[in-house]
Amino acid sequence: MILLGLLLLIIGMLVGVPLLTTVGGILIVVGAVLWILGATGRAVGGRKHYF
Hints:
membrane; transmembrane
């Protein structure tokens, strides 16, 4: 999710589409939060890992 967000962020900045930049930033933040929660051992959505 973080990689997809980073890819969309870069494409959005290069092409100049603000929607892609916004969606990419949101995906990076959500992916980072899920990664941190999973790394601490906290169950996310009933699963220890979200992937």
